[in-house]
């Protein structure tokens, strides 16, 4: 494929940034990839595994001369990074981010972007339970949604160019209002993660069931929860702090529903439980039909996927 | 391998029974396999796909002459089935079940088993989100736990014979007290399932986020929940009705923990969230070390496993 950006600066070198680097290299989409990470060890790893041509100890240095800057740091770190890089952005540069929350990122980043640069907030809906520069791989974004939440007056040429990069990495691209994005994500991702974290925490506290039994007999339900609950703690802390309103709204609804089911169990209301469990089956069918998951039976332990390059 | 039972009667012909039939056939463990299902269509399917040599419209007929009877019906149906078959069991016959709850099954079944037969309650911790006779496959039990909860005075010869069958189908076998079994399962399976059902139900009710968006953008957390929430409604209704006390105990603890995290979000207590999310990571590591899951990254969409024989 043809080069889309001349020099891409990755600010933060975790799972998403390193996967972008692998995907851009595999498809020849970037002339040069440079990076910044706070930790010297991460920067050294990035050079060692070849995801960056150059690394810089400061974000301000890293963005100089870049025509694409990707903010791939936890949402809580976006404001400080944006303030640091703002004065150093090249004219005509596009800045995007990969945060899981969008309203808070827009508020944190947009004020620091100069008039002659373009900010296009983004969210790749892709990931694994691993983090760090060695966890990335070129196919992470293939067939996954990459949501963009541009302002109404965003330069259409810059937007089309960024979209072409994302599509060339295999992603499906859609645009959405930032507030609506945050509501959708609170339902399909943020609240489910909090619930998984909670259930794993409950198991950890239990005295009557030993920890080794929880681990030894972890069945499909709980095992899936532990995978979710193994995700990066910093990233998820920031998600909940910055998408607070939408998550609290969904959590409130969740608690109500749970109490109704809990009462049905206590009262022995089998019809209520059966009807509820029958309705939820339909949603699953919809997800399979939408191509968001396979219809293959989950054996509770899927075969290991092919190990991607650069995977720890 | 050598034949372990001469004639096995499967009462109920869903995912577990049909998988047992495939596994016994593949390994030559049963001389003859006969079956009973309430539905004429299921019985016809069982003959068509060859999981049974003969089928019977009544459970009482099916168990005649069998040296192993497997009760593979929802927990709520166990008492009636046990009452029906009790007078028809062959002397020396072993009766086992595959229910996900054990105390309630013991109470429902044991009183109906005659003196000259042996009842050994069991629970294969294996499954997929599919149900019915076409969903079974021979390798379902490979490397999965099959917990037995025999009474203290259970005939050791009958117990060893049943264990040899389960191990020959690939399962790991352990014994446990029925009450303890129910507590462990409430933590690692029953409560996580109820929570997943609840979250999927919340998404279904939401007006501000359309159903099509929930489906289209279902991310890893929620997608895993929908798979769990697609399990058989009858089976799960009965699990919650019959393991009520243990599930209500764990649900109470879960609600407490959730409220503490909810409060941390509301108050902006990032340290609390970070510490909690860091602790839950350790449990995941334990599960991988115990061989209960692979350490391969979950791409959010595992490659389809090889399609087993007889799979719908």
Structure description:
- The structure is a homodimer of 312-residue chains.
- In chain A, 49% of the residues lie in helices and 12% in strands.
- By secondary structure, chain A is an alpha/beta fold.
- Chain A has two domains: 172 residues, Rossmann fold, CATH 3.40.50.720; 110 residues, 6-phosphogluconate dehydrogenase C-terminal like domain (6-phosphogluconate dehydrogenase C-terminal fold, Orthogonal Bundle), CATH 1.10.3660.
- In chain A, the strands form two sheets. Chain A has a six-stranded parallel sheet with strand order 3-2-1-4-5-6, sandwiched between helices. A three-stranded mixed sheet of chain A has the order 7-8-9, with helices on one face.
- In chain A, α2 links the parallel β2 and β3.
- The longest helix of chain A has 28 residues.
- The C terminus of chain A is likely disordered.
Descriptors for this entry?
disordered C terminus, 6-phosphogluconate dehydrogenase C-terminal fold, elongated, 9 strands, 12% strand, alpha/beta, homodimer, Rossmann fold, 312 residues
Low-confidence parts of chain A: 298-312
Q: Specify Rg of chain A, calculated over alpha carbons.
A: 21 Å
Basic shape of chain A? elongated
Oligomer class: homodimer
Question: What is the CATH C-level name of the largest domain in chain A?
Answer: Alpha Beta
Taking strands numbered 1, 2, ... along the chain, how are they ordered across the largest sheet of chain A? Answer: 3-2-1-4-5-6
Number of strands of chain A: 9
Strand residue percentage of chain A: 5-15%
Structural class of chain A: alpha/beta
């Amino acid at each position: 494929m043809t080069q889309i950006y001349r020099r891409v600066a990755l600010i933060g070198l975790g799972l998403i940034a390193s996967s972008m680097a692998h995907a851009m290299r595999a498809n020849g989409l970037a002339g040069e990839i440079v990076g910044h990470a706070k930790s010297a060890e991460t920067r050294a790893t990035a050079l060692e595994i070849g995801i960056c041509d150059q690394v810089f100890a400061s974000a301000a240095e890293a963005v100089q001369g870049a025509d694409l800057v990707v903010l791939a740091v936890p949402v809580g770190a976006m404001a400080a990074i944006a303030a640091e890089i703002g004065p150093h952005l090249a004219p005509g540069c596009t800045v995007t981010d990969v945060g899981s929350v969008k309203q808070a990122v827009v508020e944190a980043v947009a004020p620091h972007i100069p008039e002659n640069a373009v900010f296009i907030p983004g969210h790749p809906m892709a990931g694994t339970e691993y983090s760090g520069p060695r966890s990335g791989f070129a196919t992470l974004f293939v067939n996954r949604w990459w949501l963009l939440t541009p302002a109404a007056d965003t330069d259409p040429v810059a937007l089309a160019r960024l979209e072409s990069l994302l599509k060339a990495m295999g992603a499906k691209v859609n645009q959405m209002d930032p507030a609506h994005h945050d509501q959708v994500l609170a339902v399909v991702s943020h609240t489910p993660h909090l619930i998984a974290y909670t259930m794993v925490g409950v198991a950890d506290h239990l005295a009557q069931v030993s920890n080794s039994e929880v681990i030894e007999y972890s069945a499909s339900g709980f095992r899936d929860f532990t995978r979710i609950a193994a995700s990066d703690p910093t990233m998820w802390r920031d998600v909940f702090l910055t998408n607070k309103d939408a998550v609290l709204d969904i959590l409130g609804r969740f608690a109500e529903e749970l109490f109704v089911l809990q009462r049905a169990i206590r009262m022995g209301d089998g019809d209520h439980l059966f009807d509820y469990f029958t309705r939820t089956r339909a949603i699953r069918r919809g997800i399979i039909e939408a191509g968001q998951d396979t219809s293959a039976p989950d054996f509770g332990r899927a075969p290991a996927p092919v190990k991607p390059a650069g995977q720890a």
